[in-house]
Design brief:
The complex is a heterotrimer. Chain A contains 14 helices and 12 strands. By secondary structure, chain A is of the alpha/beta class. Chain A has a domain of 212 residues: Rossmann fold. In chain A, strand 9 and strand 10 form a beta hairpin. In chain A, helix 8 runs parallel beside helix 9. Chain A is globular. The termini of chain A are close together. Chain B folds into 2 domains: 194 residues, P-loop containing nucleotide triphosphate hydrolases (Rossmann fold), CATH 3.40.50.300; 65 residues, no CATH class. Helix content of chain B is 31%, strand content 26%. Chain B contains 10 helices and 12 strands. In chain B, the strands form 2 sheets. An 8-stranded mixed sheet of chain B has the order 6-7-8-3-9-10-12-11, sandwiched between helices. Chain B has a 4-stranded antiparallel sheet with strand order 2-1-4-5, with helices on one face. Chain B is globular and about 65 Å long. Chain C has a 5-stranded antiparallel sheet. Chain C has a 4-stranded antiparallel sheet with strand order 1-13-4-9, with no helix packed on it. Chain C has a two-stranded antiparallel ribbon with strand order 5-6. In chain C, a hairpin with a 5-residue loop joins strand 7 and strand 8. Classes of the chains: A alpha/beta, B alpha/beta, C alpha+beta. At the A-B interface, helix 8, helix 9, helix 10, helix 11 and helix 12 of A face helix 6, helix 7, helix 8 and helix 9 of B.
């Protein structure tokens, strides 16, 4: 096997390195099942994912619901336990003293540390450094608290400034930053008094008020009207430029990912199937799954109404409890039907993520040297 | 030109809330021919779903059809009694695929039972005959007919959506309204469902009104498009005309905000501001506070509907 | 430091602000408004009760002596406005005499009260009680003499009681109080009868009684006896103060059956004598003549039976008796056979007995008399006199009460033993509210804490808590309460017994009451825990404590408030139910009133059972309405558009 199997690289400009991440959620067994000695089953939400994110980059994690993209994102924030793997992170200057703790595992000479080696009680500073923009502008804001209280919470948790005047100033600035002006008008409102777009600005504002360096944006615009999505995205990009952020952009919308991200990783059933430059991947997908995904996206072209174009995919997404053997996509793969010689391989051996062009990786036996 | 199946004239549907009258659908007119499909697009809260519910006369209280007429197959269905409407029009004449339709299925009955029931209620079939019909319909929407014995939880989201579509088609209505039929579905399944709707439209010559916030999705199906804003239709016409030559600033904004899969990456456009409050809509053209081309006139007078080219109507002062 | 206080100040003002908002929200709704008004009434009642209640009342409220001056089982006085005319209840106590009169060495203190009886309903009782001091002079005790006179509206002045008090105990000292209470036994009934007879001219007409002075006297005596019997039996002696004769009738028995019997016997004897061989014909003739005269007398009565007077009747009868006796004496001389003579003897004494009974009992002459209420003002005067006092005290340290028990009492009437229902209802309020609140607050508090812990932390803790909840949730509470209640009644003694029994009830209710709350709070916690904003808070670095207190607790709190309010009536109803079932604790509660009505089997007395019943229902209603109002705030989906 002479070809290049993808291995995440720790270089001094990589902000984040996810290495062979596995997140399995155990399924609760009934008491009777326990007595019968049935084995514990797992939902393999993330099943061996590796990628690296460069500093200042917009890295898109794309895929259908249930592919593990959100779980990957939450794992970076340590919002769930991981089963295997490591998450290497290059911390920003302000949390250096935590990094010096003896139990923290160093992963490279550039200062990457394993986020999961930090004990819980020392992790708090990282929550300032890594933040999340949530998908649901309705659910992710406590409906019973004013915008001021919502934005005050992170300051309160991290003990940033103590007087009310200072906090009001910080919050006003944060609201101005996301163009909710004049801030005094929004500060005392409740979330339900704002439109979806305004609420999402509050969500962004709450994520940025702690001055993070890495922001994970989980479908930040999918619940907004199409007409205002671009505005929120533009805002996010402006803030990124101004504050020097690194984004991990979780989305199901490949067309959108093409527009805003530098690189993209397409996930299927807990694994990355294709990774590379976002434009290239979307415009010229290699992996049969990516192809199907791109094919399925509707476009505002009325001529399409006369065409019934069958999708290059069959069947349905299998359950993440029983992941198919070999290539997990093989039961749905149309390409496999055209290449019966690969059948044995696809069904038994998992394809590695190999470099097929510079910076372009695909996990498919079609492209691998056998 | 085939005969019109549905003519909506100056339809007004208002919600009489304690805070004031919400003019969710305000003076809306359009026409639909047999076998033709219409897409209604607009932001959330623009009144498109209320319009759909008005057509099938299921506007939830305190909403009411406050004026105008809906002429379906030659008679004004707003004038029918509830009983007549239920017996003669709803489901047999006009059926609907509801938003979030996956939750419409009753979890304690098999899908076969649920489809068969429609035949038992509306056509007086026996259970056996009903189940036979159910099998035929499942086959039609691309589900293994043996699935009649399945319970909803045994089906995937896409299959449930197909079952719901099968139920809408059960009594072979000439008009099916599909209100956001693919929300909460993944793109692949969405594409499969759109393919199914296209197929049904071609094979059964069913007229479909597709309601969506997504202009791309509407382009997949609709022969005609109506763009709604603030309870009114601002642009209406053959879809080729509307998509390729949008006239209204709102339509232009909507189309400009859609990211494309191919071609040059231009900056996406957006429509600034927020949708209007339908209790106190802005005077004049309702879009003027968000319109980059707004003139003085727009703030005072409501724009008339202009036919900019044959079969392409726009309500905008730029063309009047 | 200043920062901390500033923070806590703002927190307190925030809490006050939210309470104010909650009240406003509740007030905005109709049920909420009704609930708040009712609650205000209940709380005011409770406050008044707590301020005025005495420890003595808690102990003695069920003893008859505590309520001595109240009429027993009478309706409230407002029934008069509904057309039920009842006499008033008057309980006047004097500490100062109305007037003082010194006459030589006699000093008389007078206490007067005028009682107006303006309805037909007779009062239930009248008595005077008091405590008079023992005065001393020259080393000798001066005992008060008490005379109670009643001036009736018809002008009759009756010296109802004359009491000379004797110091009961031997260690009586100067100024020690002598207790006096009048009773019907000491009542001067004879005087009443005399005055009534005199005033209302109760005489027997001459055409009935005749003119024989002796017989007139005996007829009058029969009449007086009849009056006395009536007044003693029907008017408890004392109440004869309030009556006047309504009508009376005196009839003479016009039955001739007995007379015919005597006549036949005499005739029979006469015939037998005539057939007897007697040597002395003259004696025989005289015997026959005597018997004939007796026959004539009796026949005269029979013949004049419709017009004969009492006097003449009895005169004729005594003649007849005398003649038969005479015949008997002659028979002895004439040698009349023994058997005939003894028959004559029996006959004559029989007639004598007849006369005797006719002159002493209402047998021949039958008086019928009824009385009716005498309406008007009664002036009751209590005179306390001391004799041989040269230096009378300016004011007498006495306490005199004039009590007339009427046909109605207070605003809610009375129960058995004269218990004032209004008082018990008032004092029952704070007890009921306390039972309700303590139970509800404690069980909801436990339920919320346990529910949040169970829901938030999950795992084994959750499993254990939920199994405990399953167990306590499925044990029926009532039987347990009954068992624990009866054990408590036997176990606790002493002054605080009642409190301990009630606390036991509360304890049982709490133990079995928190489960339901904890199940719901757990479910709420589980769903809130999954809200995206909780995850967002975690991503911001919020600790578990912070999430529980800042995000979960405030949301559960309003639900808890609603449940708390809904739980209040449950405990009150349970207390009442247990009381009615016979598990009494001894405190004046609404349940106790109902329990006593049940014990006396007087569920027909509406004023006894309705007030506690209505209070229980009203309290429940208050809290249910309040709960509904709070529920609408907690659950915004219930708000109308």
């Amino acid at each position: 096997m002479g070809e290049n199997i993808y291995k995440p690289v720790y270089s001094k400009d990589t902000k984040l390195v996810v290495s062979d991440l596995k997140v399995y959620f155990p399924i609760r067994r009934s008491f009777i099942d326990v007595l019968r000695g049935k084995p514990r089953l797992y939902v393999k939400a993330v099943d061996g994912v590796s990628f690296d994110v460069k500093e200042g980059e917009v890295f898109a994690l794309a895929g259908e619901s249930g592919c593990g993209k959100t779980t990957t994102g939450k794992s970076i924030l340590r919002l769930n336990e991981i089963t295997e793997g490591s998450i290497g992170y290059l911390p920003s200057k302000k949390i250096e003293n935590v990094v010096k703790l003896p139990m923290v595992k160093k992963l490279s000479e550039h200062g990457h540390i394993d986020l999961y080696s930090i004990p819980d009680k020392y992790f708090k500073p990282f929550r300032q450094d890594i933040q999340m923009i949530w998908q649901d502008p309705f659910g992710s804001l406590n409906p019973r608290r004013t915008i001021f209280e919502i934005l005050e919470e992170p300051l309160d948790i991290h003990g940033i400034s103590s007087t009310k005047e200072e906090r009001t100033e910080i919050i006003a600035k944060a609201l101005e930053e996301v163009k909710l002006t004049p801030p005094e008008e929004f500060m005392w409102r409740y979330p339900h008094m704002l439109s979806g777009g305004q609420r999402q600005r509050v969500v962004i504002s709450r994520a940025l008020i702690l001055k993070p360096s890495l922001v994970i944006a989980d479908e930040p615009v999918s619940m907004l009207d199409v007409s205002i999505r671009a505005e929120i995205l533009q805002l996010m990009m402006d803030l990124k430029k101004r504050l020097g952020l690194t984004y991990i952009f979780i989305t199901h919308d490949l067309a959108l990912a093409r527009y805003i991200s530098n690189r993209i990783a397409v996930m299927y059933l807990g694994k990355i199937v294709e990774m590379g430059d976002a434009r290239k991947v979307v415009e010229d997908p290699y992996h049969p799954y990516t192809k199907a995904l791109v094919e399925a996206i509707p476009e505002p072209d009325p001529q399409r109404r006369f065409i019934i174009k069958e999708l290059p995919i069959k069947g349905e997404v299998p359950s993440p409890i029983n992941v198919p053997s070999g290539c997990r996509f093989h039961p749905r793969c149309i390409a496999l039907d055209k290449h019966p010689e690969l059948a044995e391989l696809c069904k038994t051996k998992e394809p590695p993520l190999i470099e097929v062009a510079p910076g372009r990786y695909v996990a498919c036996w079609l492209y691998a040297k056998k | 030109m085939s005969e019109p199946l549905l003519q909506v004239r100056n339809l007004k549907t208002y919600f009489y809330t304690l805070k004031g009258v919400v003019k969710a659908v305000d003076d809306v007119s359009f026409e639909l021919n047999r076998g033709e499909s219409l897409g209604i697009a607009g932001e959330s809260g623009c009144g498109k779903s209320t319009l759909a519910f008005s057509l099938i006369r299921l506007v939830p209280p305190p909403g009411k059809i406050a004026g105008g007429s809906i002429i379906f197959q030659g008679r004004d269905i707003t004038k029918l009694s509830e009983e007549e409407f239920r017996r003669e029009v709803r489901w047999q004449g006009i059926s609907m695929v509801f938003q979030g339709a996956m939750n419409v299925l009753n979890p304690v009955y098999t899908v076969g039972d649920q489809i068969a029931e429609l035949f038992m209620v509306h056509k007086g079939y026996t259970k056996q005959e009903g189940l036979k019909e159910a099998e035929r319909l499942l086959q039609m929407v691309g589900i293994d007919p043996r699935r009649v014995k399945s319970y909803p939880f045994e089906l995937s989201g896409g299959m449930k959506q197909r079952v719901v579509i099968a139920m809408a088609l059960a009594l072979s209505p000439p008009l099916v309204i599909a209100d956001e039929p693919t929300t909460a579905l993944d793109v692949v399944v969405q594409a499969q469902i759109m393919n199914l709707l296209k197929k049904l439209k071609q094979e059964l010559k069913t007229s479909i009104i597709l309601i969506s916030h997504d202009l791309s999705l509407i382009a997949e199906l609709a022969d005609k498009v109506a763009i709604m804003y603030g309870g009114k239709i601002v642009e209406y016409g053959q879809s080729d005309l509307v998509y390729n030559n949008p006239q209204h600033p709102y339509t232009k904004g909507l189309l400009g905000s859609i990211p494309r899969l191919r071609g040059e990456i231009k900056d996406l456009t957006w429509i600034p501001g927020t949708p209007p409050d339908l209790i106190n809509p802005p005077p004049g053209c309702r879009f003027h506070p968000r319109c980059p081309y707004a003139m003085d006139k727009c703030k005072k007078e409501e724009p008339p509907i202009i036919e900019v080219e044959k079969g392409h109507y726009v309500a905008c002062w730029l063309y009047a | 430091m200043s920062m901390a206080t500033g923070k806590s100040n703002s927190r307190i003002s925030k809490i006050f602000g939210s309470i104010k908002t909650a009240f406003k929200e509740i007030w905005r709704q109709t049920p909420g408004k009704a609930a708040l008004i009712l609650l205000l009434v209940l709380v005011s009642m409770a406050v008044v009760a707590v301020v005025t209640i005495t420890p003595e009342f808690l102990v003695k409220w069920e003893s008859a002596t505590y309520w001595e001056d109240n009429p027993v089982v009478v309706p409230p006085c407002w029934v008069n406005t509904l057309g039920f005319k009842t006499s008033k209840t008057t309980q006047v106590y004097f500490t100062q005499p109305s007037s003082t009169d010194v006459n030589g060495s006699i000093v008389k203190y007078t206490y007067t009260h005028t009682y107006v009886l303006d309805v037909n309903d007779l009062p239930k009782d009248l008595y005077v009680k008091g405590e008079m001091p023992l005065l001393c002079e020259n080393g000798g005790f001066k005992i008060p003499a008490i005379m109670i006179t009643v001036e009736r509206p018809d002008g009759i002045i009756i010296h109802a009681w004359n009491v000379a008090v004797q110091p009961g105990s031997q260690n009586a000292t100067c100024g020690s109080k002598l207790t006096v209470k009048t009773s019907k036994e000491t009542f001067n009934l004879a005087e009443v009868i005399n005055y009534l007879v005199e005033k209302y001219n109760i005489t027997i007409p001459q055409e009935i009684v005749g003119t024989n002075e002796t017989y007139v006297q005996s007829a009058m005596s029969i009449l007086r006896t009849a009056i006395r019997t009536e007044l003693e039996n029907k008017y408890m002696s004392t109440l004869s103060l309030f009556v006047k004769p309504a009508n009376y009738r005196i009839t003479l028995s016009r039955d001739t059956k007995i007379l015919e019997g005597y006549k036949n016997q005499i005739t029979g004897l006469k015939n037998r004598i005539m057939n007897v061989e007697i040597d002395n014909q003259v004696f025989k003739d005289r015997i026959i003549q005597s018997l004939d005269r007796a026959l004539n007398n009796i026949s005269w009565i029979i013949n004049n039976i419709n017009t004969v007077t009492y006097s003449d009747y009895l005169t004729a009868m005594s003649y007849a008796s005398a003649e038969i006796e005479n015949a008997n004496k002659l028979g002895l001389a004439a040698g009349l056979p023994e058997d005939i003579r003894s028959e004559l003897q029996v006959l004559s004494s029989g007639i004598k007995k007849f006369i005797e009974s006719a002159t002493s009992t209402p047998s021949l002459i039958i008086p019928e008399i009824t009385f009716e209420t005498l309406q008007g003002s009664y002036r009751v005067e209590v005179a306390v006199a001391y004799y041989g006092i040269s230096n009378p005290p300016q004011s007498l340290d006495a306490n005199v009460g004039i009590i007339v028990k009427g046909g109605c009492h207070g605003i809610l009437g009375t129960a058995d033993k004269g218990i004032d229902i209004a008082t018990v209802v008032l004092y029952g309020t704070p007890i009921a509210l306390s039972i309700g609140f303590v139970t509800a607050v404690t069980s909801v508090f436990i339920g919320v804490i346990v529910g949040i812990i169970s829901g938030y932390y999950g795992g084994l803790i959750d499993e254990i808590i939920q199994r405990i909840v399953d167990v306590i949730g499925n044990i029926p509470t009532l039987p347990i309460l009954i068992i624990v209640g009866s054990v408590a009644q036997k176990t606790f003694t002493g002054e605080a017994k009642s409190l301990y029994i009630i606390l036991t009830y509360i304890g049982v209710l709490v133990i079995f009451g928190w489960g339901g709350v904890s199940i719901t709070v757990r479910a709420m916690t589980l769903s809130i825990k999954e809200e995206p904003y909780i995850e967002a808070a975690k991503a911001l670095g919020a600790s578990n404590t912070r999430i529980i207190f800042k995000h979960i607790f405030p949301q559960v709190l309003m639900y808890a408030a609603a449940v708390l309010v809904f739980n209040v009536p449950g405990a009150i109803l349970t207390e009442a139910g247990l009381s009615v079932l016979g598990l009494r604790h001894g405190w004046p509660t609404w349940g106790s009133l109902l329990a006593s009505a049940r014990a006396e089997n007087r569920f027909d007395v509406w004023w006894w059972i309705l007030p506690p019943g209505i209070m229980i229902s009203l309290t429940s209603l208050t809290f249910v309405l309040l709960g509904l109002a709070i529920e609408r705030i907690v659950e915004p989906r219930l708000r109308t558009l």
